[in-house]
Structure formats: structure tokens, C-alpha cells
Amino acid sequence: MSTLHQTAAADEAAAPEAPPVIERRGMPASPPKRVAHIVSVSGSQAIAVLEKEAAAELSFHRIEIGQLVKIPTPGSAVIGLVSAVSSPSPAGGGGTDEIRLVELNLAGEVVDEPASGRLTFRRGVSHLPAIGDAVLLADRHDLTRVYTQPNVATVEVGSLYQDPEVPARFIVDDLLAKHFAVVGTTGCGKSCALTAILQRVLEAHAHAHIVMLDVHNEYPTAFGERAELIDPGNLHLPFWLLNFQELSAALTTGDAHHDAEVEILSDAVVAAKRRYSDASSNRQLSRRPGDTGGMSVDAPTPFRLSDVLAFLEEQLGKLDRTQATLPYRRLKSRIETLASDQRYSFMFGSLTVQDTMTDILGRLFRVPNDGRPITVIDLSTVPPEILDVVISVISRLAFDLAVWSKGGLPMLLVCEEAHRYAPASGNGFEPTRQALSRIAKEGRKYGLSLALVTQRPSELDATILSQCSTVVAMRLSTERDQQVMRANTHDGALDLLDFLPLLGDREAIVLGQGVAMPMRIKFADISTRGVPRNHNAGFSQSWSKPNLDRAGLEAIVSRWRHAGRERHQG
């Protein structure tokens, strides 16, 4: 922020006395301590010079970056956020004669609301400060008035850094309806921060519908009896729910035969869907070649893999040896392999095919929620080659359900490690990126919102990140990640992001529409309420005694090899 340092000395010498404080309803009779006065105003920014008396009492009236101050004007009390402090001409030994400047971002104002007869905070400034106006430290009443919105649903997630006695509150509708992101480096407390937010939301909203994609199996213990826990052992996501793009990604290869395999698979799926539909309705109509009977390759209608294999066998029997049989044989081999591999039993292992779409959607999206408003889906053991397909299907089903319910089923989709399956590089699984991007752009129209959690915002798709109207920024150490956050922040508080590397554990800078105004907070300690699982007890503790013997290793290998079989048999 540019400053007019050359005028500071003259303004400091000619500073007028503080104007009398106008008492209003709800304001204390004794005014807060005057600490500075305005010497420059430019747009939404202002510069103040610290008073000599305040400079001498810095141990009692400390001015820190991120603090709130207020500037009384004839029409309101303007609220400013301290963005920088400096001394353009420092005196030796830091004496009280040196000039000390405080740079402010003007964020809003406190006005007397005639309808309610109360002092209320609103964003925007209609009465700008003038040269010489007093700058006062915001007291606890001011902080509460600014950060607590009356007649608005909020949840308390922690406390303000400026005053730990003042609760930090998020505005529920603006936080959830307009997407939000939690970003921060490993170990800074992202998972605990997200858990603190969701726990408070669930306490206040028993009929919520939240789906969490848990890629590290961290959250089974975080929500207690409120959570429906799903893992590959009890997940049922049949292959016929996949659209054709997702199905072809799971069943075809990416080499020179890809296009031929996709074309063959399309014909096979349509034929299988038509056969299942005819069998279900006990009818068999004669059709001319190419007649699909109105069946779409993307429609979420059941079909049998055995019918797909039968179609491939039939086509192979019609081909001469001189024709290319390799795409048919590879498709057939791939389908047979997936059907017999127990790791994929949740998708391809069902021996019978039934139209259970309603049951599947009801369990995934908690309709009805039966006292468990959040679904935690453990994806940690899903095979990597199909993980993106699973996430794509769940994301797409969430959007389609929101659309077909016409917004009557508000849902929140929580994406842990979002940069893994919606990367900025463009190398990720395209259907997953498209599904999340569509939710980010259009989901709010239908009551579907995203919560993105990532340790590398620079590696997350920029379009998806830009749609998040609220950002919970925790400690970020790399300059590239900090630059991305600055580029996606439009809240007049960019200076606060310069301090992201200095934040402690559970501390965050919150920007956007989910809070009354930008704030630095410390999330509540949730150790007694259920915390995300930490699989690493720490090297010093683990290495202080023997931690695994040969028998234990053999047991791990046995579970590793037979997990799929045990799930299938169970």
C-alpha cells in the first residue's frame, strides 16, 4: 500500500484533539482509548499516525496486523483492519518522538439501525474518515457487533485471535450455499478445522445431507453416531450406474486400439441394456439392425456384464480371421478380469443385477438420514486405477440428484485432497474434473455445494477453486500456493495473506462471504468431541520400543491379500 510518508510529520504535529464521542443506544459511556489519528485517505485505504501517548503505552495498547480499529465519523463508526505498521524515520532506541504509521483497510461501518434501534455492522463505507479523525482500538463490544450477525444462522467454530473471549462465527447459508475451501500445509490442522466446522453444522442441523470423500480414512471417528460409514466392504456402486465415459475409462485401454474398443463397447452396452429391459418386461421385439429401442448408452439403467460378454462372443464369431479381433478379445479379457478381481467387487462383483438405484442414492445421500446426516466414504483402499471413476460417479450422481429434485434436497459434497482428482495440470481423469467443475459452476442453483480441502491450492483446478466464495486459509509455506490464494481473493484483505507462513496450528485467516468480514481465528479444540484419525503416532514414540514383529507382519500381509475375498464373503 502506497503511503504519504512525507506529510506524516506535519500532520502529527498539527493533530487536533479527539472529537467528543456521541453516545448511541448500546454504546458504553466511556470511550475506548484513542491510539492514532488519520493523516491520509485514499479509496478504501487510510493511513494513521500513532499518538505519542499511545506510543509510550504500547505495552498496554499494542497495534498488530489483523486487528480491528474504529474511526468515529459524524454518520457512523468506520471499521478498519490493520494491514501494516511502519516507522518511516526510526529514531535511535525507539523513542516516543519517532513517527509510527498504521495502514488500514476500511472494511465497513457500524451504524444506528432505525428499525431495530440497535447498532449494526454493514460492509461498505458511506461516510469516509477525514484528516485528523481519531482512531480507536476496537473493544470487545465492537468485535462482537462486527463478527456476530443478528437474525442470521451462524455456527461458532472457535475464537478471534484479537480477543479469545469473542467467538468466531461462520454464516451458515453463505458458507454452504456458495462453496468453501480449506487450504493449508500438512500438519497445520486442516482436518481438525474441517471437523470443527461440520460438527457445529450438524449439531444445529439434524436433517443435513453431507457426503465426505475420505481418501485417507481419517474421519470414521470424527462424527460418532451421526456418521454413516461406507468402505469398499459395504459400498455398492454397480457398474451400470456409470455413464459411458466412466465405463469406458474402466474397461478400455489408452493405446492405439482405444477408439475401436470404445466403439465396440458402446454397441455392446446398448445391446445389453436392451436385452435386460426386454427381459424385465417379458417381451422380445424384433428390431432392425441399428435400432436401439430408444435405449441410451448413458442412461442409468441396469444391464448384465454377461450380456456384454455374450455380445462380444457373438461378434467375434462373425469375424473372419483377417479382421481385427484384438479389440474384442481385449475388452472381453478386461471385463472378465474385473468381474473376478475381489478388489472391484463393490462395482463389478454382483452375481445378480437388480434396479437398486433408489436404495443406493438413499444410502449415499442420507435420504432419509435416520439420525446419520453425514456419509463418510472411505476410499483409501479403492484401487488407484478406478478411484477417479468412483469419485466421478458419486459427484455426478450428487449433481443429477440435485437437479432432478429441483433443489429440494440441499447437499454438501466434501472433497478431501481435492487436488488429487481435479488437478490444475489437466492430467487428471477428465470426467471427475467435469463433474466437480459443473457442481462448482451450477450446483448452487440446485442446492448442491462443494467443500474443497487441499494442501496444495496451486495444484487444484483454478476454475473450481475460483468458485469458492469462502476460503479458510491456514498455514501455507510455499510462495506458489500463496500467490494462488492472492489471485483468488477479492475481499480487500490481501495483506493478511502475507502472514500465512506465520500462522500456528489451528489458526486461520478466513475470507469471503461466509464471515461478516475477514478475520484471523483459532479453531476450537475438538479433542473431546471426536477428532480425525491420525495413523502416525510419531516417530519418537513409535521407535522408542518394538512396534511390529514377524507374526504381526504376516497378519498384515494376509489381510492385504485377502481383504477383497473377506469383504465379498462377508
In brief:
With 570 residues, this protein is α/β, with parallel strands linked by helices. The chain has helices at 5-13, 52-56, 140-147, 172-177, 190-204, 244-251, 258-280, 305-318, 326-340, 345-348, 357-364, 384-404, 418-421, 430-442, 462-466, 479-487, 539-542, 550-569; strands at residues 34-42, 45-50, 68-72, 77-86, 101-113, 118-123, 134-137, 154-160, 167-171, 180-183, 210-214, 227-230, 374-378, 411-415, 448-454, 470-473, 507-512, 519-523.
Provide the descriptors you would attach to this structure in a database record.
alpha/beta, Rossmann fold, eleven-stranded mixed sheet, elongated, 570 residues, 34% helix, disordered C terminus, six-stranded antiparallel β-barrel
For this entry, what is the oligomeric state of its chains?
single chain
CATH topology of the largest domain: Rossmann fold
> What is the CA-atom radius of gyration, in angstroms?
30 Å
The main sheet orders its strands as 9-8-18-17-16-10-15-14-11-13-12
Write the layout of secondary structure elements.
Layout: H1 5-13, E1 34-42, E2 45-50, H2 52-56, E3 68-72, E4 77-86, E5 101-113, E6 118-123, E7 134-137, H3 140-147, E8 154-160, E9 167-171, H4 172-177, E10 180-183, H5 190-204, E11 210-214, E12 227-230, H6 244-251, H7 258-280, H8 305-318, H9 326-340, H10 345-348, H11 357-364, E13 374-378, H12 384-404, E14 411-415, H13 418-421, H14 430-442, E15 448-454, H15 462-466, E16 470-473, H16 479-487, E17 507-512, E18 519-523, H17 539-542, H18 550-569
Parallel strand pairs: 10-15, 10-16, 11-13, 11-14, 12-13, 14-15
Antiparallel strand pairs: 1-2, 1-7, 2-5, 3-4, 3-7, 4-5, 5-6, 8-9, 8-18, 16-17, 17-18
Helix pairs in contact: 6-12, 7-8, 7-9, 8-9, 12-14
